[in-house]
Amino acid sequence: MDWSTVTFVRLGYNPLVTFAFVELSPQLAFFEIKDCPISNFTVTPQTYAALNALKKWDGDTDNYAGFVVTNNILTSSSDCAAINGQIRSLWATSASYTISVCVASPGTSSVDPSSAPAPVTKAPLTKVPSPSSGSQKSGNDKDSSSGANTGLIVGLIIGGLVIIVLVVLLIRRHQSDKTPPVTAEYQYAPPTTQAYVYQPMEAEPYHSNYAIPTGGSGPFVPPRTSTGGSGGHVASSGSLPTATSIMSEGDIFLDVAPLRPHKLELADLTVISERPISSGAYGEVWLGQHGNQKVAIKKLKDQSPASVFQFIEEIKLLSRMNSDFIVKFVGASWRRPIEMECVVEYMDLGDLRNYLATNSPAQFGWDQKLKSIVSIVRGLVYLHTFSPPIIHRDLKSRNVLLDSKKGTKLTDFGSSREIDESTLTNGVGTYQWMAPEIIIGTEYTQYIITKVTTGQLTPTLDETHTPTWVREMAAVCLQNDPASRPTSMQLAAMLQRL
Length: 498
What we know:
Blueprint (H helix, E strand, L loop, with lengths): L7 E3 L7 E3 L9 E3 L7 E4 L1 H8 L13 E3 L4 E2 L2 H6 L2 E5 L9 E6 L26 H48 L7 E2 L65 E2 L14 E3 L6 E2 L3 E8 L2 E8 L4 H14 L10 E5 L7 E5 L4 E2 H7 L7 H19 L5 E2 L8 E4 L3 E4 L6 E2 L17 H5 L6 H7 L14 H10 L10 H9 L2
Parallel strand pairs: 1-3, 2-4, 3-5, 4-8, 6-8
Antiparallel strand pairs: 7-8, 9-10, 11-13, 12-13, 13-14, 14-16, 15-16, 17-19, 18-21, 19-20
Helix pairs in contact: 6-10
């Protein structure tokens, strides 16, 4: 049987007792005979070499490469010798079982050793038959030979059809195994009739505990820090999907299909720090290595389906961005969707807040600060001119990263959202960084926040050590009326003139 072009063979759980003279080639990538009671395994040298070159399959369903065997296979040595074969061990160093096969010499007839007929010798005839008897015998021989040939042909045809059907079934099964799922590979609490498909919510008043208006049946989602931004015409409909419109956690469907093109091989990604290089309320960042590149690996502390759902949406958004002023997305990594990790480029100087705290004004002068401000504004211009536009909503010093060679970049898009003009004051974030009109739409009642919203309290700047252009730019950005504040593009134009 010629299977020399076959790359995938799966025969597991079949009552298969004989596997003999099937031609396989080095193209073979996967061979599985799980729970097959094989007692006769006979192959040619070429097939033996192709099988023995396979390594034990590691169970990775994204990469079917190797062999699978779950029981001993002991081919009869006497039957093998009857066809001039040789008993050899298969996968001797990697299999957990004893696999002895009969390797037939080249030119051996394709007869199963267990069914090989006993040798027969024919002596020469000593009596010459009479013409009549010879003619009769010749006729009988012809009839017998004709009948035998007919039976052989019918048997070969039936056998060939059976083989073709088996090959077609194996190919279809292989293609079915290789076909990626069209939705998610993992669902939390699997009632598929309730699988959730996200649709944007209408605006809801912001509550300090971010409670879900579902009568107590929905999951609690902690607030994420964000800001309303300084642009006069930027609006937002809410953060990335946070499952806030889902009735229960059993409905949350973790769809990782869009991330498959960005999935990194687990073997290529290594954590090289002993502790997180950054840690917050919801996640932590570890220093890692991907190939010859240092990377930052972001992991969630809370692995609830609601948090992972939002994290996946953040990664999907980040994967679409490509700017010198946005932290570069490297890929995503997971064994199970609930263990999702986001991998981005490593910025060696850390975040702006820590950098300001650990470096004096002399070490980090206004010429360097100007470069960082320009990069931040250009990052906002990129987001606001995206198609569709994106609002960051969490722009603060901790979400600005610095690098000695790559400069200043924006990060953390967990609260970011594509703009929807239908809602302008969806308050997602911490009040310190919100625009006044965002705070008004929330239930924050602190006295100091009231003063900010009414314009009675504004930040002050050190006039002695702060350049005039900084004070002037801050003054217009802190206007209480959003229409009086400049857009990111207007800010970029102002900085261009410096």
